[in-house]
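Title: Prediction job returns without error message
Component: structure pipeline
Severity: low
Priority: P3
Assignee: unassigned

Description:
Job completed but the reporter wants confirmation the result is attached to the right record. Sequence as submitted:
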Amino acid sequence: MNRAIAVACVAFATLAQDCPREPWGLRSLTPAPGPTVYFDSGAAVRLHLANGDVITGTLATSYTPGGDHLLIAGRAIALNDVQRITIPSSAALEGGIFGYYGGGIAGISKGYLSHKKDNDKLVVAIGVGSLVGMAIGSRFTRWLTLAERTGHGDLVWKPSRAFLIPGPGIGDQFLTTCDSGVVAVGDSPDGGPFLTKLQRAWTIDTMEHRLVPRPVTGVRCRSESWQTPLRVAMPERERDALTFAPSSGKARIYVAQRAMVYAAYPQLEIAVDGRPVGATSPGAFRMIEVDPGPHEIAVTSHGEKTISLVAAADSNYFLRVLAKRRFSDWKIGRIDRVSDAAAGRRMILAAQLVQP
């Protein structure tokens, strides 16, 4: 019985992982300073006005709260006239929940709990019910309240964290605040310190209260789920490392540990020419400046792996370290040189510099 319920819960969690986790339908949301709601151009909204009119349409311009008007359906609507703002959302998650319980009740009614060998049938019934419920729910749209005017006359925005009302082609993806007042959407991270695979990014225009599209190149969006026991480097030191510009006559060696689900372990000690330079953890990197000539880089904890290279002046070298799980302990899988400079830079941009 307990085994069946546990398996069913895992199955449903797997099925629902792409469903909205917030009532607003966006995942991996992180706290944002200042305005917390951003409209992308083309976002669908419904406005309930003080005179009783209801306007449904798409926004003509990007917008952040703090402005005076919303441009929708060819009209400039003053926020002072808006009583409530709602947005469309799929009912897939609710359908999946009802289907989950419906499948369980159907399985129990057929006696699938009577014998241990029938437990798998109960799991299948719950899984099928969840899928059917999600499929049915996805065909229905509900309108969720995003902002509502209180009795004191204030228009109160409901989300407490960074939230994007997406325009066409974005779908159910994350929004996060990034460096230098930038917001972006893209795919979820793979356990690393920064969200990668960004698709679109904007700069917040605080004067016009709107979002201005900008290239995603060079934008780094921190993942709040990534934590390391190591001390991270000061921002100015990391900015210098990310210039990929060695001191005159020197070479830089970047050693990055591949990101994993566990951001804390294993910690691997790095040594250059027999001199310890500190540890890394999954998703972290170290930068070491060296003189031109031959050098040996070693990973000396959880086993030992070494790699040699001949450094040239004013050059960068990128090394990737992979650790593997071995029963109750870890071992060093390998240390590779990333010969493609562009790939090496992308690897470092997605990692976090730790304090020397």
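Comment from assignee: result matches the submitted record. Residues 235-353 form a domain with the Immunoglobulin-like fold (CATH 2.60.40).
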